[in-house]
Amino acid sequence: MQRYINSAVLALSLLCSGLAAADEHAPVAAPKISVGDSWTYQLTDLWKNEPGDLNRTEVTAVNDSDILADIKHAATGALVAQTRFTREMNPFDLGKTHLDQAFARYAFPLEVGKEWKSTASGDNAAAGKRWRYQFEGKVVGWEKVKVPAGEFDALKIALVGYFQGEQVSRRGGSGQLNETVWYAPAVNNYVKLEYNDTNLQGHPHNRHLWELTDYARK
Asked: For a pLDDT cut of 70, what percent of the chain falls above it?
């Protein structure tokens, strides 16, 4: 009798463990962002292997179609830039380039194996540059990621962007950018982001890393 009881307990334990695992890997819904939410990231230049800016992104407005945010120096609070996201936290800006359609960094609900594609055009008026992008994204899997803000369960997302550029006073060209993003549902944003790209001649150009150092959810 005891053997049967032990077998039943073991079966129940395995069932509960399976349900917990299934729940952990359930599709991740789009975040619910509120005014006052913020994320502070440490930038590192991977070519130089040295830290760069420490900036905080603060949500200032949320409406039916998009999210507005200020980017500020974490130490001084000085305004660096104002930026806009979709309700899914997809950015309309790539560096100093403004896009007509948001960069589809995420395609919620997110689950392992999901893939998506998108296109956009971008303009950097100050530099006299225009770009056409084709983006591809894929959810690679779940990983535990340790950053200055703590350790998080995160979805690893691989993104690639193929771009063609046209400069007002020079000949155009083409290149590629790559992002690896670790999105953590606990913070409604990424906790780590690795970025690299090429110039218009296809040569390696930028290599950057952003890591979460602090966050606040309202």
From this structure: 86
Residues near 126 by Cβ (< 8 Å), separated by ≥ 6? Answer: 96
Q: How far apart are CA 35 and CA 95, in angstroms?
A: 23
d(CA 85, CA 83): 7
pLDDT at res. 172: 64
Sketch out the chain's domains with CATH numbers: 27-216 (2.40.360)
Cβ neighbourhood burial of 153 (10 Å; 0-12, 13-18, 19+): middle
- Residues of the chain below pLDDT 70: 1-24, 166-172
Question: Residue 31: which residues within 8 A CB-CB, separation 6 or more?
Answer: 88, 89, 185, 188, 189
Whether the CB-CB separation of 129 and 169 falls below 8 Å is answered with: no
Interatomic CA distance for residues 4 and 2, integer angstroms:
5
Which residue is associated with the tokens 């997809």?
Answer: 90
Q: Tell me, what's the pLDDT at 103?
A: 96
Closest to 61 (Cα-Cα) out of 32, 36, 29: 36
DSSP state of 88: T
Distance of CA 93 to the CA centre of its chain: 13
Which residues are bridge partners to 71 per DSSP?
57, 81
Structure tokens at 205: 């150009």
Residue with tokens 């309202």: 218
Query: Which H or E run contains 180?
Result: strand 173-184
Q: Is the four-CA dihedral 116, 193, 189, 163 of positive or negative sign?
A: negative
